[in-house]
Amino acid sequence: MKVSLNVNGRVGVADVEPRKTLLDTLREDFLLVGSHAGCEHGVCGACTVLLDGEPSRACLMFAVQADGYEITTIEGLAPAPGELSVVQDAFCEAHGLQCGYCTPGMILTAHALLGHNDAPSREDIVEAISGNICRCTGYGQIVEAVEFAADRLRRANTPRDANGARADEPVTGSAAAPLGGRT
Amino acid sequence: MKPAPFEYVRPDALAEVCEILAADEDARIIAGGQTLIPMLAMRLARPTKLVDILRLGELRGIRTEGDVLVIGAVTRQVEVERSEIAHRALPLLMKALPWVGHPPTRNRGTVGGSIANADPSAEIPLVAVTLDAEIEIESPSGRSAMPAEEFFIGPMLTSVVPGDCVCAVRFPVWSHPCVGTGFHEVSARQSDFAFVAAAAQVALDEEGRCLDATLGLGGVGDHALRIDVSALIGQEFSSASIADLVRAATVGLEASSDLHATTSYRRRVAAALGTRALEDAFADARSANGAVQ
Question: What is the 3-state secondary structure (H, E, C) of B138-176?
Answer without folding.
Answer: EECCEEEEEEHHHHEEECCEECCCCCCEEEEEEEECCCC
